[in-house]
């Protein structure tokens, strides 16, 4: 009986922590007035992501990654 109580207590604690962490905080991390960059812009500006940019172009995903 004691083992069952511990199991349910641990399950309750885990589910409470899980649901408490699922906050609807989808606010952008950038400062107000600062426009965030897309993945394609960041990869282009960095200059060392040529394989990624080539793969995006070949798979026609460049437009998708350019969408903020």
Number of helices: 4
Low-confidence stretches: none
Q: What is the number of E strands?
A: 0
Helix fraction bin: 55-70%
**Based on the structure, what is the oligomeric state of the protein chains?**
single chain
Taken as a percent bin, the fraction of beta residues is under 5%
Average pLDDT across residues?
Answer: 80
- N→C terminal distance: 54 Å
| Structure class | mainly alpha
Radius of gyration over all CA atoms, rounded: 22 Å
What is the H/E string?
Answer: HHHH
User: What profile does the largest beta sheet have?
Assistant: none
> What form results from the Cα inertia axes?
elongated
Description:
The protein has 4 helices and no strands. It has 68 residues and is mainly α. It is 60% helix and 0% strand. It has helices spanning 2-21, 39-46, 50-58, 62-65. It is elongated and about 60 Å long. The model has no long low-confidence stretch (mean pLDDT 80).
How do the strands and helices of this protein lay out in sequence?
Layout: H1 2-21, H2 39-46, H3 50-58, H4 62-65
Protein traits:
single chain; 68 residues; mainly alpha; 4 helices; 60% helix; elongated
Quick take:
The protein is an all-alpha fold.
